[in-house]
Amino acid sequence: MSEAVQRRRLAVPTVSMLPRAGDSLSFLYLDIVRVEQDDTGVCAVVETPERGREVVYLPTAALSCVLLGPGTSITAPAQATLGRHGTTVVTTGSGGVRCYASSVPGSLTTKWLEIQARAWAGEESRLAVATRMYEKRFGESGLASSEVSLARLRGLEGARMKALYRTLAKHHRIARFRRSYNPADFDDQDPVNKALSSASACLYGIVHATVNALGCSAGLGFIHEGNQQAFVYDIADLYKAELTIPLAFSLHASTDPEGEARRHFRQKLHLFRLMPRIVRDIQEVLRPDGVEEEDTGLRTKVVDLWDPVVGSVPGATNYAGDLDDDE
């Protein structure tokens, strides 16, 4: 083998070199900018009479999610680059509140989608996954083997959230608090509700990005259903009591609760290492019998062929020889 060929082979990236979903940065919120692709990369462009044209390049390969707020436009080449890098693009309302639409980057494998679909399709398996999700919320195990019904678990979860709201309101000396969200009257709501909506929107975007990166379906929920983000809501609810709700109450006196909620939440993501937790929790609730260390949604083969006997056989292979064997 020539030296030139050896150098080319060493330069070819392997699966282990590719970025993992759990190692990605969290999210980037943009508004009133134009996102485009130039010869260097994807950039956000702002033009003002005072400062002229300002360009900021985006770390697309390391971003999990880009939230596009009002006044934002994106070109097709920029969207394609973000999709190739596995970055989810979410179109949101002002301040990142409400998710209107999102792109789904391609995944190199459907393994976790198949595991999710099988668990969702069976009544017993779906109940088992939903119960494991409640176990993670409550911080205790063994509910799956008990006689506690799903309706009982929903009631316990509701009581837990009421107690949490009451405790945080008392701690921050808020006389009366009621969780409400009215898009038509959002500006007249109190700072806690504004901050909670803003932080929740960011959390949904991050979870959605992780779900897409693993190749799962955002619409196949186990507790929630009837919405294209049902599974996103399932997973996001695992972290609200720890992250978004205490953060929102701490901003009860803020004059900019939406903006501060996004900035503080981004800081907390580094502290709690949320992205690796989301990856691990999705895998654990879908397959509690153990997750292989190298199983991160990235594989060297492009596609398999389904086989009813052995499960799957390698793709990109000509099986014409099998006809001769049968004859």
Key descriptive features of the protein:
alpha/beta; Ribosomal Protein L15, Chain: K, domain 2; Four Helix Bundle (Hemerythrin (Met), subunit A); 4-stranded mixed sheet; 10 strands; 43% helix
How is this fold's topology laid out?
Layout: H1 3-11, E1 25-30, E2 34-37, E3 42-48, E4 52-57, E5 63-68, E6 73-74, H2 76-84, E7 88-92, E8 99-102, H3 111-121, H4 123-138, H5 150-171, H6 191-214, H7 230-236, H8 244-250, H9 257-272, H10 274-286, E9 304-307, E10 311-314, H11 320-326
Parallel strand pairs: 1-5, 2-6, 5-7
Antiparallel strand pairs: 2-3, 3-4, 7-8, 9-10
Helix pairs in contact: 3-4, 6-7, 6-8, 6-9, 6-10
Structural description of this entry:
- With 327 residues, the protein is of the alpha/beta class.
- It folds into two domains: 19-102, Ribosomal Protein L15, Chain: K, domain 2; 111-286, CRISPR-associated endonuclease Cas1, C-terminal domain (Four Helix Bundle (Hemerythrin (Met), subunit A)).
- Helices cover 43% and strands 15% of the residues.
- It has helices at 3-11, 76-84, 111-121, 123-138, 150-171, 191-214, 230-236, 244-250, 257-272, 274-286, 320-326; strands at 25-30, 34-37, 42-48, 52-57, 63-68, 73-74, 88-92, 99-102, 304-307, 311-314.
- The strands form three sheets. A four-stranded mixed β-sheet has the order 1-5-7-8.
Rg over alpha carbons: 23 Å
Give start-end ranges of low-pLDDT stretches. Answer: 9-24, 293-301
User: Can you write the helix and strand succession as a string?
Assistant: HEEEEEEHEEHHHHHHHHEEH
Strand order of the largest sheet: 1-5-7-8
In terms of DSSP E residues, the strand content is 5-15%
How does the overall form come out from the CA principal axes?
flat
Q: What is the number of helices? A: 11
Q: What's the mean pLDDT score?
A: 80
Distance between the termini: 41 Å
Residues in helices, as a percent range? 40-55%
In the CATH scheme, the class of the largest domain would be: Mainly Alpha
